[in-house]
């Protein structure tokens, strides 16, 4: 196969690659991103299991139906319900959707979780399952309005940062901020996000959330327990999530870190923009340097765009083998994808529309703040509104993270 690829003219490969990017529909998987599940050992106790067609299973099915039907209209992304009246067959359950996801994403996650949890923990009466987008819990004992840090998990990125002292300082500032704000959130979501500059090119993001049914004091206690775990489990790691039944926190490096080849998030819109620019220029972003001083491909592409010469980015060996308007449009879309504000970047569905329809007007891209020249940074903390999405570029899959169970507290 490698020999076959080597025999194909480079011009042909370029045209084929651009065609794939610009004319083949791009879709994202509908399934939520699984993080971890707490599944008791059902072989040790019959009281923690239920039999097929039992009263508990009937109540559990009712619970799942009610939770699913309410997942699209829960204003704070949270809902709890009790199915049944007679112990030990009562089924208590709740869901919590991440504070910045849409109602549609919340619904899809909850509906998926009700089926996934039973498949992963068949016959178990007590299950807690986490995804990037939501949390689902059910039990035969009440789990409402009570702080619970008796079990959990740590998910960490295996890559280290270059300056551990500075990173830990910035991360600590961010996490203190989100813990204070989430535990006193007037909106009722008990959710907060924040960011701070780690360097002129890199940003640290933080997120914290509690189940809204616990008190402000219990929320703060839960989040502080999470944060206190960071130094022991995840010192100098590029990203980590601490998960408890009543709360969770995330702290991680910004998606722009991918510019220098030390962070992987291939499904991100930002990374898609980088890929388009690499194909057009024939150069790798993490090995790029230009004589004008641009230290990375993205900065160079932006410079050419502002100078009105975007086609100067084009690989010179491909001169005459492409349509100028098509390549210019691809560059335009790529620059929209690498904008600093995640909310300013188009969704993948919008990108598909942009690529397939020239009648779609493209907005002007914003200047990325990660430009390699003429920029200074500070550690100023910036709070993000609850509608900001701060996790677009971090995929916490089992294959990309280290997962550690948390001992009971």
TrEMBL record:
Residues 369-396 are annotated as: Disordered. Residues 1-29 form the signal peptide. Residues 38-143, 149-256 form the Gnk2-homologous domain. It comes from Rhododendron simsii (Sims's rhododendron). CDD domains: Gnk2-like. This is Gnk2-homologous domain-containing protein. Residues 375-384 have a biased composition (Polar residues). Pfam families: PK_Tyr_Ser-Thr, Stress-antifung. The keyword Membrane does not apply. Keywords: Repeat, Signal. Gene3D superfamilies: Gnk2 domain, C-X8-C-X2-C motif. The lineage of its organism: Eukaryota, Viridiplantae, Streptophyta, Embryophyta, Tracheophyta. GO terms for molecular function: protein kinase activity. InterPro entries: GNK2, GNK2_sf, Kinase-like_dom_sf, Ser-Thr/Tyr_kinase_cat_dom.
């Amino acid at each position: 196969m490698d020999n076959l690829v080597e025999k194909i003219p480079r011009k042909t490969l370029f045209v084929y690659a651009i065609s794939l990017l610009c004319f083949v529909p791009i879709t994202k998987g509908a399934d939520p991103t699984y993080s971890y599940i707490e599944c008791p050992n059902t072989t040790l106790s019959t009281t923690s299991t239920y039999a097929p067609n039992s009263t508990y299973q009937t109540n559990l099915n009712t619970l799942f139906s009610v939770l699913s039907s309410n997942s699209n209209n829960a204003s704070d992304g949270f809902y709890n319900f009790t199915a049944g009246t007679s112990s030990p067959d009562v089924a208590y359950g709740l869901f919590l959707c991440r504070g910045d996801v849409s109602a549609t994403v919340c619904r899809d996650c909850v509906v998926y979780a009700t089926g996934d949890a039973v498949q992963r923990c068949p016959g178990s009466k007590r299950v807690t399952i986490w995804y990037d987008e939501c949390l689902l819990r059910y039990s035969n004992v009440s789990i409402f309005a009570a702080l619970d840090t008796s079990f959990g998990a740590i998910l960490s990125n295996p890559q280290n940062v270059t300056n551990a002292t500075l990173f830990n300082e910035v991360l600590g500032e961010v996490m203190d901020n989100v813990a204070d704000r989430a535990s006193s959130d007037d909106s009722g979501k008990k959710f907060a996000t924040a960011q701070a500059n780690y360097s002129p090119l890199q940003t640290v993001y933080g997120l914290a959330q509690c189940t809204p049914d616990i008190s402000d004091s219990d929320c703060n206690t839960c989040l502080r327990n999470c944060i206190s775990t960071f130094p022991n489990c995840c010192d100098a790691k590029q990203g980590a999530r601490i998960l408890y039944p009543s709360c969770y926190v995330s702290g991680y490096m910004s998606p722009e870190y991918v510019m220098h080849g030390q962070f992987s998030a291939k499904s991100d819109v930002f990374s898609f923009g980088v890929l388009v620019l690499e194909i057009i220029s024939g150069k790798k972003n993490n090995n790029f340097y230009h004589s004008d001083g641009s230290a990375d491909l993205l900065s160079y592409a932006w410079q050419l765009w502002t100078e009105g010469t975007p086609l100067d980015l084009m690989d010179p060996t491909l001169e005459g083998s492409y349509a100028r308007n098509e390549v210019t449009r691809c560059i335009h879309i790529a620059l929209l994808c690498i904008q600093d504000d995640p909310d300013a970047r188009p969704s993948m569905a919008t990108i598909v529309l942009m690529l397939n329809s020239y009648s779609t007007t493209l907005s002007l891209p914003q200047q990325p703040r990660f430009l390699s020249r003429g920029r200074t940074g500070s550690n100023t903390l910036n709070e993000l509104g609850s509608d900001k999405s701060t996790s677009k570029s971090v995929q916490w899959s089992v294959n990309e993270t280290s997962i550690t169970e948390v001992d009971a507290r």
